[in-house]
Predict the structure.
Amino acid sequence: QVQLVESGGGLVQAGGSLRLSCAASGGTFTSDYAMAWFRQAPGKEREFVGGMRWTGTVYADSVKGRFTISRDNAKNTVYLQMNSLKPEDTAVYYCAVRFGPVTAIRRDYGYWGQGTQVTVSS
């Protein structure tokens, strides 16, 4: 059974940094799989943050230049390095996995983690 477990969330001041991790178990996610991050703020839809596959990495415009996704295939783990955080980055962050290209469409992803809270204070 595939499980995705996020960690690394917390409270940080604006301008600070956090690194989220997403460890996958119950399967081997080769580079053919897209590993992505989404986030959901209170009262808002879950939105795409970015994703990585062997073909490259894609970011939402709102985080481009501030967030970086990396992955360690040997550890089945994907990371989200978040720098220059803003209060509007406050959300629950989820990792997700699908076989195939990175997409920004939530329903394309079949595997999801439980989420980790990121709160950015002003």
